[in-house]
């Protein structure tokens, strides 16, 4: 069975609609409120409303782009696993180094080396805690 051809009359070259700045839903130019989220489509004049509108448009485009990147790249599913593994390695390395330096500082009776070792140990434990304990 052959595929049906797309009807070009359904997609005219010029779209007679405006995007909602809140949700991005296309609305007719005659509408005063968005048909999807019911927010106002009234366009104010002046510098402050222009800055606000530009901010909302750029934020909407950024959110749209973030969603597209998540859909397009299947390798991003490995990113949280690699991130978790990296944090574990950094935390274990800092903790181990802190314990080693602390034992060396106790053997040498060095106060400054003990402070540095305790900082390494603290940051290592804090990193491991942030990996395993969720907020």
* Helical residue percent band: 55-70%
Q: Please list the strands of the largest sheet in the order they lie side by side.
A: 1-2
Class from secondary-structure proportions: mainly alpha
Shape: elongated
Q: Helices and strands, in N-to-C order?
A: EEHHH
Compute the number of structural domains.
2
Oligomer: single chain
User: Rg to the nearest angstrom?
Assistant: 28 Å
Q: Strand content of the residues, in percent? A: under 5%
Low-confidence stretches: 8-13
Question: Residue-averaged pLDDT, rounded?
Answer: 80
Number of helices: 3
Question: What does this entry show, briefly?
Answer:
The protein is mostly helical and 135 residues long. The chain has 3 helices and 2 strands. Keywords: Membrane, Transmembrane, Transmembrane helix.
What this model shows, in words?
The structure is a single chain. This protein has 135 residues and is mainly α. 58% of the residues lie in helices and 4% in strands. Helix 2 runs antiparallel to helix 3. The protein has a two-stranded antiparallel sheet. About 4% of the residues have low confidence. The chain folds into two domains: 56 residues, no CATH class; 57 residues. It has three helices and two strands; from the N terminus they run E-E-H-H-H.
């Amino acid at each position: 069975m052959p595929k049906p051809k797309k009807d070009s009359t359904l997609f005219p070259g010029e779209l007679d609609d405006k995007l909602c700045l809140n949700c991005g839903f296309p609305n007719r130019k005659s509408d005063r409120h968005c048909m999807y989220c019911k927010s106002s489509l009234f366009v104010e004049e002046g510098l402050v409303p222009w800055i606000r509108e530009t901010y909302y448009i750029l934020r909407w485009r950024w959110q749209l782009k973030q969603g597209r990147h998540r859909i397009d790249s299947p390798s991003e599913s490995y990113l949280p696993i690699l991130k978790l593994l990296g944090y574990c390695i950094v935390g274990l390395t800092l903790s181990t180094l802190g314990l080693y330096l602390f034992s060396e500082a106790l053997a040498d009776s060095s106060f400054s080396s003990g402070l540095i070792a305790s900082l390494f140990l603290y940051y290592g434990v804090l990193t491991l805690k942030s990996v395993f304990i969720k907020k």
